[in-house]
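Q: I'm teaching a short session on how sequence maps to structure, and I want students to see two examples side by side rather than one. Could you give me a first protein with its sequence written out and its structure tokens following it? Keep the formatting plain so it prints cleanly on a handout.
A: Of course. Example one:
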Amino acid sequence: MIRTLALFLTALTAVGMGQPAPARRPVSLLVTNGIVVTVDGSRRVIPRGAVAIDGRDIVAVDEAPARRPVSLLVTNGIVVTVDGSRRVIPRGAVAIDGRDIVAVDEAPAIAARFQGRETIDAGGAVVMPGLVNTHTHAPMVLFRGLADDLALMDWLQKYIFPAEAKTVSPEFVRAGTRLAALEMIESGTTTYADMYYFEEEIARATRAAGLRGVLGQTIIQFPVPDAKTPAEGLARTERFAKEFAADDLITPAVAPHAMYTLDAETLKACRALADRLSIPVIIHLAETKDEVKTADEKYHMTPVAFLESLGFWGPRTLAAHGVHLSPADIGVLATRHVGVSHNPESNMKLASGIAPVEAMRQAGIAVGLGTDGAASNNDLDMFEAMRQAAFLHKLVAADPRAIPAPVALEMATIDGARAMGMDKVIGSLEPGKRADLLIVSMSSARQTPMYDPVSHLVYVTRGDDVRTTIVNGKILMRDRKVLTLDRLKVLAEANAFADKVRSAVR
């Protein structure tokens, strides 16, 4: 008779002497997981039984079906899935086994099917996909506030490049990455794309913190701390890629800095290496008018067209910024299935311009959101990036309907994953995807009342509203306590390096 009860769906109302049992046919009420004393003809006593009721009648009495054991249940939250149908489940739950999501449904249905070795009650909070930061330079958190209110080239050439030349080392990179990882975990980023030096050190620190990363080893024409020549940088990239080739959290990438900081042969070599190793490519693209002017003066082409002439573009390529793009440029990027990272805060702070995000989206380009490095933002809060992206494009379009809240949320989650070619694995809460998710408090004064959780996530919520961060099924932060990093040690280490940075730019 166990099969009989398995035919009933979770009831419209459930009375639990434990948890509701799974079923297929809709009924009005299930009383389940109790010691059922039937007083029937055989005087059965069922140690763990259930009674299915439809209307006024009992339709089945039997053993309650066994529940599947899983590693973690997150239950009773407002589940914002960002799945294909954009479901929002008012009282939902997510079942996680190991690194994977195995079910997303209403809380009673999940409780009926699964028994968690650990359960987190998210009552009143939003459960959502982890945020995907499609562009940053993690260790540059140690340059946060070093130089502000400058044009990009002045900022780079007078402050950042000299400071990097004097301070960047494997130890600096490790300390900066740990600080960035702490900030990202605390503010809800679960996956990030990076471009910097000593990327193998960034990868080790990222993996130790439990975050997911698409990490690009920077290739640049002039001598930098980890490579004196582009050839040396490419060799370092290959070693890095091979070390992390099978890693569950780290995706190695090659990151040619930009078309204006590399010659044509090196750009071709970067693409060839990526193709040979089957790794992604990350590059800055058309960030400033100066870059477009340089391309025009040297090659009589736009940056996009120049790179297209080299055979550079291809799938699994992520272009950061894309501020100054012509309609023809957008057509090339769409045809080549290039993802784009939109960085509204950095672009506004450096007055670089406004990326044609709506035109790119209409062309079918996957456009994700990024913070850029904290030296030009000056934080890594992706909730802030969502809000600023929505506001900026409403203003430039003179249309309050531009980049509505659901689209901004998609750009920070599933579209960011698409831009990096990872949407089959992350970016939404769906069975079969990696268990990268957040529990976000909605209890503050500024979040009260709440009529629409998606609106609140974009227009009201901040990074410090994140209560719990989970990546690959592992809890990295619970109730605002980070479990994978020693917070005080990380901050002390960062402050020690700050003294060296100050000395470097005096």
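Q: Perfect. Now a second example for contrast.
A: Example two:
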Amino acid sequence: MAALRGAGAKLPAPGILGFLFVLSLGYFVFVRGIGWVRRRLMWKLRDRLIVAYLFIAVVPVLLLVTIVALSAYLLYWQFGAYAVYNDLQKRQDEVAATAETLATSLAVEAIETGKPVNLLDLPQHTAAFLGIARRDLPGLEFKVGEDEELLKRSTVPPHSHFSGFVQDKDQLLLAAVIARPVPTGRLVVSVSVPVTPGLIATLGPELGPIQVNVMHPTDETNPQGLVYSSGGRLFVAQREILSPGRSVPPKSSWFDVNVRGVSKMNAIDKDAISNPAADLPVFVSFSTRPSRLNERLFASVGDLGGIAVDALLVVGVVFLVIEVAALIIGIVLTRSITSAVNDLYGATQRVQAGDFSYRVNVQRRDQLGELGASFNTMTESVSTLLGYQRQRARMENELTLAREVQAQLFPRELPSMPGIELEAVWRAARGVSGDYYDFLVLSPTQLGIALGDISGKGISAALLMANLQASLRSEAGLDGPVPVETAKVVTRLNRHFCRSSSEGRFATFFYGVYDLQSRTLQYTNAGHLPPVCISGGKIRMLEAGGMVLGIYDDRVYQQETVEIDPGTLFFAFSDGLIEPENVYGEEFGTERLVDEAVRHARSSASAVAQALMAAVDQWAGTPEQADDMTVIVARFQAASTAADAARGAG
């Protein structure tokens, strides 16, 4: 110190004080602070496990998940861009193939006739092909003797073929130019198709919304909108082409994120064909989901799918190694846990063996003691839950028995009547159903057909269904004279249903009686979905009757009699066949159901019923059903068969 003073030096007091402050702060933070953390925070078992698992699993997994997520996003982006490019290339190939065919046809015609091509007098086959091409490629424009300059951009000698994007003023075109030698010189055929929203809408149905941006050079310093820089030139989007009516596909799972990607292509500027540097960039952007791209990705893998599986296994092994290493680190970090853990482990073994009466002897008043008390509470709760589970199993057995009993209420065997082929399919949404169908043989020549749908589901609806069945069989005269008019039967059923059911419960119901001798169907429809008669290409909906059962007990119902032509197909159905929705939220609907029946109008009754159910299942795309599904089908045979049957019955 004296030497420093003698030399005239001064102590940097502020610097020394700052250094001492930092040193003291480091001491309190890293030495005293770590001790305080260990005493106050790390004494809890939960905190120690949290710290251990942060180093064992959370940090490595987060890093891996981040890398995998970024890689997957880039992969799907690239695949989506490839899909857009591939579909556009297919359209371009169609345009090129059209130009190739037209050029070849016109060249052959010119060689055979020795005359120049006349667009006003095309050969019949050429004109027919051109018409088909314009139908497949809307907006197709066909020229002869024009756009020959585009052949200069051909990359394949002898420069007689060109295909690519062309920007003509404000219009982006898929263009193709073909040259063919003819006796009169050189025949140049050009075909172009404008890139319109309609064309964009046909690209990549799995890609969602697609947008095409055509870029143009600009001299502005700060242009607005989409800007792109390349080769010292600045481009700005001047035209956008959007795919109409397309939206981002719905999520199939929480990790099915929205993938936004873009693909870049070049278009030849028609005003600067000879200058490749003047080509205009074209950006095609899209927005989709990985689940939709997977459908296309794995469809094209074929036999190479095993490679993907092997790669997945390799990744799984890597993850297993990481987890084993994490387990070892976790064991090292948890060695400080006391012997109470062994008591808890022994208790878990007793519980695993089925002894839920065992309790841990709690002697500590710390975190581990609370853990032991919580374990005792948990085993008591588990014992209670097992009792509830056994009770639930008994209820499920009772529900199964109820289903079996209900199944006995439906016709065990379909009636066999000459001149009529019958089929019925019933599928409950739950253990028991509120749908009801029945076939009643009223006489050797009369058959009753009934179909109903009770409001609600489950056991309550099934009980009302059984009540309705008993009432119908009583009112239809199975134990007495046969009522002739269906309206009277339904009117009595409504009165009985109102008196025997609670307020707010109702049922839709259809009841018809087919007479074999007169070949007529008398029916009453009480608010049910109209059954359908298909005969000779004509479709008739059976709607006459009145409102649903169970609303007003004094309601009088109407009836209608329709003639049944030979070969008529009749089918009735519940709302469970028209309400299933597809992945886009669209209901199957009556119209699609009728169309499906028309396609199978000449099939057997059994085939028609199975086809209708299969069409609904395919539309829904899931084995789960939200409502009961019932369909009955009747095919009335030809006149000669029915007449013979009627005489035999007489």
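Q: What should students look for in example two?
A: Point them to this: Confidence is low (pLDDT under 50) at residues 1-12, 639-643, 645-650. Also worth mentioning: Residues 145 and 188 are 5 Å apart (CA to CA).
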